[in-house]
Specification:
alpha+beta, five-stranded antiparallel β-sheet, four-stranded antiparallel β-sheet, flat
Length: about 180
Amino acid sequence: MGANVSNFLFLTAFMLQMAACHTAKQTLTIDELKRAEYRSEWSSKEKVKLNDGIYKEKIAPDSATELVVRLTDKIAFGDLNGDGVEDAAVILLSDPGGSGTFYELAAVISREGKAKYAANVPLGDRVKVEEIDIRSGQIVVKMVIHHRTDPRCCPSLRVEQEYRLQGDKLVRQSLMEKSQ
């Protein structure tokens, strides 16, 4: 009987500890990413805090032109920093009011279920991001970029790029051309 009580207490303590660990390792949600703060080279504040996935800022005080930064639907979840918790990679679209639309890849680390910006890297003007994924701690971006003879409207070169989060930087590990 004493062994059964001992086993019961051990299992109860173990289950409580596992529950505490699970709670401490909360993962990010899309809603959290839609409210996160990101670095932006386009903003006069150098940072943008999204509200339901969008940020707006006047280019100049009396201007009708606005910078608009949007979280796209290209989002991937996976561990980027080796802590065993799901982080995220997202694609942001910045429209500073001219003819360009600029895409960037951002890495977001989960800190107790809260989105913490880690790093970003520009992907290009008027490119087509088809898919992102996180594999073995690397972010994989499948996209169409401009070949040197392409007009700005019409990228045609399919590529797959891999990035790794190193400290506060996203470092490209590879760039491979893909066939149509």
